[in-house]
Structure formats: C-alpha cells, structure tokens
Amino acid sequence: MSQRLRLLKGPPTSLEERYFSDIRPVLYERHGAHQQYGVRTGTTLAEHLDSACQFILTVSRQAGVPDRIREILLATAAVHDLNKLGDASGRNVKQLARDRTFLEKQLERACVKSLVPSEDSLELARRLIERHSGHGVSDGMIFSPEPDEMEAWVAMLRAADLFDLGIPEHKRIQKLQTELTVAFERACSLYQVRISKDLGYITALLLNAAEEILVKQGMTPLAIFPDGVLLEGVAWPQGDLIPKIAARWQSKINEVFGKNIEQLVNPTKDGIKISPQAINQDIDEVVAIAFGFLEKKKGGFKASKIEQDIAKWGQKAGSTALAEAEAVGLVPVSNPEEFAIAEGLKAVYLSYRSLQPQPSTQETWDLIASQVGISPVHRAAIEPFDPQYARPLFAAKVVTKGREGIEAALRDSLQKRKESESGSDGSEDSTVAPEIRTAVEQLLNLPVPSLLNGFDALTDYITTNPKERSSLGYTSANTEKLRSPNMPPGTKVQMFSNRIPGGMSAEPTRYADSIEALAYQLVAVGGQFPAGSKNEPMYLHFLLPPGSSPELRRIWIEFLRDKARINPEGGPIQVDERKLYRDNQLEFKSSKVVGFAFPQRSDYINGNVLIPLLWGDTNVSVSLLKSLWLALELSLSLEVGFPFIVSSHLEIDPSAEVYGKVEGIPTSLSPLLETGQYSRENAAKIRDRLRCLGPLVLAVASPKKRDDCLYDLARATSQPFSLYYVLLRWILREKENPNWETIWSEICEPLNTLLESLMPKENHTLTQYLKQAAQLAVAGKIWGSSYKRTASIEPFGNFIAAIRSQKPYMDLDLIFAALVQNYHTRLDRIREHGVGATKFEQIKDYYQVLRQLYEEVYQGRAEKLMADQKTLESAYFFFLQDARNKAKAESENSEIEVTETVE
C-alpha cells in the first residue's frame, strides 16, 4: 500500500503495542487474501490469526503469565496453523512443527522470530503448536519433561484457536469456558452484553457504564464486539444491576453536558423550556443561562407585537375579566423590563408543570405567587386568563420581588423537579430519571431475563396522535416537541403550522422520542459541531472487528484523541485535499466548519466508533463521495483494518456482516461505487477508483471548483467513455491557454487506470480505432494549420460533418473518397511547400480507419455516431496528444543516442 497509518506514537512500549504496530500489519499483508473453508468459511487466514493473537494476549495477561512466556505464546498464535502457511507437501501440523527449518522460516515471515530467541523458547513454541489442535502427545515426547503450567498454556492456545470458530454461539462459548477453566485454574463463565441498536455516543456511554459496573462486580472484559462486550467471571453478579447501570449512564450523560448546558435550555416561542437532563446539572448554571435568554427576549421587545398578544388573550378572557383585573391594578406589560418579567413567569410556569406528578394549573400558579410576591387579590384576578400565555403578561407589573423572585421560583421549580424525578427514598437509583431506566431496559441486553413489556411500546405507538409520532426511532410515551437545533438536519416534520392559512409564523413542529433526540444532541456536543450548522452530516461508523481485544480499543482511542487535539479549539479536523488527491496521504489540520468531528471523550468509543463528517454547503452526493473516500483510506490502512459503515443516520445495525457498507448510493454513482456492500478486496478496488479521480480533479479544476469537478467526473463514470468529454470541458472552462502536453501527462495514467477498472472489456474496438487514427495523424501530420485543439481535430471533425450531412444517394465509397480528396487539397493549400502523393496515401489510410470505426462500431448508423460526437472528438484529441507526446519522446531519445554515438 502507498499509505500506512501509524496508530502508535514512537516505538512500542508493551507487547500489545508491538503486536499491533509491527506484527498484525504483516499478517494481513501476507495472508489477507487467503480464504478459509469449512467451519471458517467467510474469513481469511489473516483474520483468524489476528483473532487468535489478540485473544491470547488478553487471556495470558489476565492469567498473570510472565512476559517472556507471553511472547512465546504470541509467536505461537501467529503461526499455529502451519499446514495453511504455504507447505504443499501435505504434511500435518505435528510433522511441520518438527521441521525446524520450516518452523523458523514461518516465524521469520510472521515477524515474530525475535520473540523466540533461544533454543528453549523455540522448543516450547514447537510443543505448543503441536498440541494446540487438541491431540495429546502420542510418541516418545510423552517422556520429555514439561513446565507445570504447560496444560494451562496449551488451553490458552486452544481457546484462541476456537474463539472465531464458525459454529453456533452457545456451543462455541461452552468450548471456550472449558478451555479457560483449565487456563485460569478456576471456574470460568463467559457472558455477552449487547445493545439492541446503536445510536452513536449515547449507546457507547451505556456500554461503557455497564462495563464499569460489571468490572466492579468482579467481571473482566475479554473481547470487544461491534454491538457489545464479552466478559469473564466466576458467576454473574447477584441482584438487579439495571439501577446501577442507569445511574452510571446518567452520570456520564450529565458529564457531557456539564459545560454545554445551553444545549438543554431552549428559548422557544412558548417560553423558555428546560430539558429534564438539565436538572441534574449545576442549577446555578442553568439559571444563569435562562436569565441570559431573558435578556435576549428583553432586547427583542416589540410594542406592536405585545399589543397584539394582549388584545388576543384579553379577548379570550372576556370583558368582565379585563374589567376586574383593571379594577385591582392588573395592567398589561408596556416596556422591555416588564416583558422580561413576564417571560420569566412563563419559564417558571413551564418548569413547575414538568413536575412528576404534574400539578394542576391552579396549584402551579399558587406556587409561583408565593415565590414572586403576587398578592392573593391579584392572584384571584388573573385566574380567568390563560395560565401560560396571558397571565404572565397581566401579572408582571404586580410581581413585588422582581427578578429576585423569578430566580427564586426558578430554582425552587428545578429542585422540586430533581426530587420528583429521582425520588427521596435514598436508594441507589435515586438520581435516575424514569426514562433513563426505561431506556436501559430497552437498549441493553444482559444475560439475565428481562422484565421489559413489549406490549407497552406497541400500545404507545397505537394510541399516539399521528401528528405527534416520533420523527426519530419508535414512538413512546416520552415523545416531546423539539426545536430544529435539537434535531438532526433533515428530520421529517409531522405538522406545518406556518403553512395553514391563519397559522402561526413559527417553525414546523417536530416530535421525537426523548432518548433518540438526546442521542443527536450528544453527538452535536461531543463532536463540537460548528455553531449554526444547518447541513446534514454524514456519519462514519468504524466497527471494531468482532472479538477485538480491549487493548486494541485503547490504542484506537488514543489515536482518535491525538487527532482531535490537532484543533485546540475542539472543532472539526480537516484533511489536506491536495495531498490526498495528489499523494494519497492523510494529513490532518484544524478547521472551523468542515472535516472530521472526532470524538472528544474516550467514553464515546466502544465497539462502534462514530465520526461525524461535516462538509458545509455541498450536495449529498459530494458528501457521500468524500466521506467514503476517507473511510476507505482509514479502513484499508494495515494498522486499522476495521469494517465501516457510511450513512446519513445515527442508528445502524452494529453487526459487521460485510467489510464495508455505504447507505444511500444514488443511481448516478452506482457504476463507480457499485452496490455499496464491499468485501475487503472490493473496498480496495473502490478506493483505487477514487484515488484515480484525485489527480484528474487537481489537473483540471481550480481549488474552489474541486467539489464540482469531483461530482461531474463521478457521474460521468455511468458512461465511462464520456470522461474524455467531461475532462476537456473542465479544462476549457478553467484554463485560458491550456498546455495540453503537460495536462495530458498529468491525467493520462489515472484516467487509463480508471477506465480499465470501469470497463476492462467494453469499447476496446472503439478505443483501438481512435488511437490508430491518432497515430496515423501524428505520423503523417494530418491536422490543420496549427497545434491548437480545433485545428488538431479538423480532419476528424470533417469526418463527423460528412456523416451528418450524408444524403440518401451517397454511398460510403463516395463520402470517404470526397473526404480524402478534400483534405488533401486543404493541406496542399495551407502547407508552405504543398503536399504530394505520399500525403494522399497517408490521408487515405487515415480515413480508412475512421470508416472501419463507423461500420464496425456504429454499424453505419449516423444517428448513433452523432449521439457520441462530443465524446468521440474529445477522446480523439486526447489520443492525438498522447501520440504527439510519444513521438516527441522518441525523437528526443534518438537525438540523445546520436549525440552519444558522435561523442
């Protein structure tokens, strides 16, 4: 490969780092194309050896095996299937293990020979390989002394060999437990913890929370899967773990929003709404943010708009209510300060109404009146008015405690909400919101019976008003109305109030399940999306290969965090497009609006690594192309090798059934990107195609037009031969006086490689005839009065014009005879010394080739030829330039040879 990412900074310091840095890439380089059969069908030998090496590293460390023995075990795992490593003699593993020359050669090829430096270590490795398949010693070797721990080490190697066996999971787990019981010399049980669906950072936080709780209960992570983790322990912990996991999960969510509480406080047209997740944060910070929004509302005070609202709500209350209010001094707001007090009352009302159980409107306003200093007389007078919209407007003037009263009421409401949602019994889950616990039960699959009732979710969906069904995920009892900034861009809308005659001039209404909406907010905050970003991101999901070691996850986390630190402001990380397009290298640099939104916290990473990609104001197809290109470059680097999914959705199927997957490929790009589901081999083919587009874009487009050019070239691959025309059009558009010789030298190789990949057998005859005509034109200098484009393709253009103007009485003999005679006359007129019979024969041969092209490729049908006119002229011109360059090179080489001979 031309590029290999280095995940590790500096020389490796541990055996695990040495494996991932130096040994694992070699395994994939040597055995990545070696397909396996039988119970291992669908995996390559490299994947099997990698799985065995990672597993034995994890198990040997947990068992406390000394480092010198761990090195031997790792070397053994890297070559344990000796019969699959290139021996054609048909010998079995035992025979190959006893062939010292062959064994040392395989250890050397796997880059692990240095791990078995002595005779004793080589002998131990040989014995482990000989016995790993489960057979005991059956010859004189039975009398050879062995270390006391030999059976445990053999069991580790056997377990590593069985770990990715393609048999039913319960049988495989039973076999692993048997071997690990011997390896650990104690009882051993394995348990799988999975998530039912992947929602990005929020489910990564959930898995990490569950893992932390289970580790405290004595469990140990053995392997990471795209949808969960495999743990080992003596027995599953007693008691209900859901409350503990939910509490830790909520704590992690709170930590994310600790410095981003503004995401949870929303200044809507209905008042300032404070999300349930905000009440577990710093209440002082929440209040400060709310009062900041009140200041903004104060600054946006418009007397005319307020007068309309007062008239509207006063009319609904009735003239009697208005008269009684005026009699006791209830006068509507009239200035910005009073309007800010009214908005504060509305915010307090909404907060109190979020208590569980929900208080009545009368109880709510009684609480507000006592906090802000509204007298009983005034409290009774505002009762006929609408509690949310009208009462704040009429009560603002009689709030005796002013802003201090509003602040006290807001704090009181937040504290009461916190207590109402957490309970006051002092139990371990006392700080857990009910929807958080419900989400844990729905999302997390533990190896114990679940009490979750699926009929409740079905009932919620059936009984919910269709206009209020969730735009994200399933509809549940926790569906709520949200503003656009808290929803992924492009979220569908259930109701357009501003499109109904007489409707409010508000934004469209969207509803979403609270957990699904929170998942997007976590990604936006965690990835630090640019402020005001309205463009839908693409999501790059890297799935750790099934059975990855926890150490690989740690190394990958360090790699991502190191890249995220490139931007000290915490924003996106951009790739230098010029280096990517020209040199196929990924060089990262900070950006403000586009690039990778690398995860900022290690908790955002588990079996699935979510990386949002922000492309600014580009169309979806360009975003998809660029996202897939970067995904392929990262994934196919030897030190990564992770399956990936490119999608416009947060939610994905976390299983890694195929190596690469792209969702939503448009029809125009399917010839280039194919089906969107790739094996490792197909992924490499698609990456190479995209790499061919890069030099073409650089050669013909200015920096500001690269995205447009990339899109045009990608679409042109639906008819690959039209690439010549698209390239010519871009060159003429972007370059005033193009140097055709230089441009062709830059695009020749990548263009030919791309065409060979897209149509290895198609249009071969057409290309052959066009190239032959171009070569004859160069040999006979058959073109117009200059080397410019129009003059260069003049004879070919005459051929096209003649076919276009063909009359019914003209046969091809007449047409081509006239072409030859006319162009010979043309050259005789424009050439300084005229042309003779030799030139006539050259022109005749030239047009004979074009006639063969017309008859064999286009079956003599003029309409088919005319349909391809622009493409044919463009391709002919580029072939002519290629022939000129070759002739020039041959001439220069001849001059050099003559000069050297004379000297």
Helix share bin: 40-55%
pLDDT < 50 stretches: 423-430, 489-506, 898-903
How much of the sequence lies in strands comes to 5-15%
Structural class: alpha+beta
Question: What's the number of extended β-strand segments?
Answer: 16
Q: What is the tally of helical segments?
A: 36
Summarize the structure.
It contains 36 helices and 16 strands. The chain has 903 residues and is of the alpha+beta class.
Detailed description of the structure:
With 903 residues, the protein is of the alpha+beta class. 54% of the residues lie in helices and 7% in strands. It is built from 36 helices and 16 strands. The strands form five sheets. A six-stranded mixed beta sheet has the order 12-13-9-14-15-16. A four-stranded antiparallel beta sheet has the order 2-3-1-6, sandwiched between helices. Strands 4-5 form a two-stranded antiparallel ribbon. Strand 2 and strand 3 (228-233) form a beta hairpin. It is flat, with a radius of gyration of 37 Å. The chain starts with 14 loop residues before the first helix and ends with a helix. Mean pLDDT is 84; it is low at 423-430, 489-506 and 898-903.
Task: Give the topology.
Blueprint: H1 15-31, H2 45-62, H3 67-79, H4 93-97, H5 100-109, H6 119-131, H7 150-162, H8 169-184, E1 189-195, H9 201-216, E2 220-225, E3 228-233, H10 242-256, E4 265-268, E5 271-274, H11 283-299, H12 303-317, H13 319-327, H14 336-352, H15 361-372, H16 376-381, H17 391-395, H18 402-422, H19 434-443, E6 444-445, H20 454-463, E7 479-482, E8 510-513, H21 514-526, E9 538-543, H22 550-564, E10 573-575, H23 577-583, E11 588-590, E12 595-596, E13 608-614, H24 620-635, E14 644-647, E15 660-662, H25 670-673, E16 677-678, H26 680-700, H27 706-716, H28 723-734, H29 740-758, H30 764-780, H31 789-792, H32 794-804, H33 812-830, H34 837-857, H35 862-867, H36 869-902
Parallel strand pairs: 14-15
Antiparallel strand pairs: 1-3, 1-6, 2-3, 4-5, 7-8, 9-13, 9-14, 10-11, 12-13, 15-16
Helix pairs in contact: 1-2, 2-3, 2-7, 3-6, 7-8, 9-10, 10-19, 11-14, 11-18, 14-15, 14-18, 15-18, 23-26, 24-26, 26-27, 26-29, 27-28, 28-36, 29-36, 30-34, 30-36, 32-33, 33-34
